[in-house]
From TrEMBL:
GO molecular function, one term: carboxylic ester hydrolase activity
SUPFAM superfamilies in alphabetical order: alpha/beta-Hydrolases (SSF53474)
Keyword Zinc-finger attached: no
Gene3D superfamilies recorded: alpha/beta hydrolase
Keywords: Hydrolase
Residues of the signal peptide: none
Keyword Hydrolase set for record: yes
Organism the protein comes from: Caulobacter vibrioides OR37
Protein origin, superkingdom: Bacteria
InterPro entries assigned to the protein according to its UniProt record, in alphabetical order: AB_hydrolase_fold, FrsA_esterase
Official protein name in the record: Dienelactone hydrolase-like enzyme
Length: 250
């Protein structure tokens, strides 16, 4: 499938937030975790709007026919829709933005939570195998270099078979902001840190916010995982961090 066709399908199930006015606005693409699109991500979208950005909360599962229960049983366990496959959504949404008159498709910020962070990282790490492994026939690393100004990775999954620690991100990657949770019992903190350290060694600008008392999904007040503990204070801290990242890329 080409990126425009898949982008249209994704957009039908995604939600767009825009500042007042005609635009064009820079755009933050917000990618959910393995459990699917949840309401707390819309709060981050509103943060982007206050910073002068449009935001699109992308639903990667409904277009694939993946229900919330199926997501828990198959995506969260690594059996389906792994990061390299879902990375095609990034290229598809970039193509879709090119057809939206309210969007500045050359000023895009990628923000991913957990599985969404893995998705962003694999989109860069795939390199010459991008089209083959994503299934998006016209997916090219050059599109990322042309359009993306920065990335936020919040408690990203970076264990096997994620590619960043082994492969890096190739030429002309964007600056990265990251949030690591010190009490994360889902993805841990050591493997995300190792991936970020690889990017730093490769010369990327990498900013790390380490939250020693945070669990996985600490910013999701509807998280149904017993390993997650909601922390509204840390949620506010990360919203402010997101704002600073967007302002740095405006």
């Amino acid at each position: 499938m080409d990126s425009a066709a898949w982008g249209d399908q994704l957009a039908q199930h995604s939600r767009v937030f825009k500042p007042v006015g005609p635009g064009p606005f820079p755009v933050a693409l917000i990618l959910h975790g393995c459990g699917g699109k949840t309401p707390f991500l819309e709060d981050y979208a509103r943060v982007a709007v206050k910073a002068g950005w449009a935001a699109v909360v992308v639903d990667s599962f409904k277009p694939r026919g993946v229900t919330p229960l199926q997501a828990k049983l198959t995506v969260c366990t690594g059996l389906a829709v792994r990061g390299h496959k879902r990375a095609g959504d990034v290229f598809a949404m970039l193509a879709w933005l090119e057809g939206q008159d309210w969007a500045d498709a050359d000023r895009v910020f990628l923000a991913g939570w957990s599985h969404g962070g893995w998705t962003i990282m694999d989109a860069y790490a795939l390199g010459e195998r991008t089209a083959t492994l994503t299934g998006i026939t016209d997916a090219e690393p050059a599109r990322l270099r042309r359009s993306v100004r920065g990335a936020l990775l919040v408690y990203p999954y970076a264990g096997y078979p994620a590619l960043t620690t082994r492969r890096g991100w190739g030429a002309e990657p964007p600056p990265v902001w990251s949030v690591i949770a010190g009490k994360d019992q889902v993805v841990g903190w050591k493997l995300p840190k190792a991936a970020l350290d690889r990017l730093s060694r490769d010369g990327l600008t990498v900013d790390e916010l380490f939250l020693p008392d945070a669990t996985h999904a600490f910013d999701d007040d509807h998280a149904n995982d017993p390993r997650a503990r909601y922390r509204p204070d840390l949620f506010q801290e990360v919203q402010a961090y997101f704002t600073r990242a967007l302002e740095a890329c405006f």
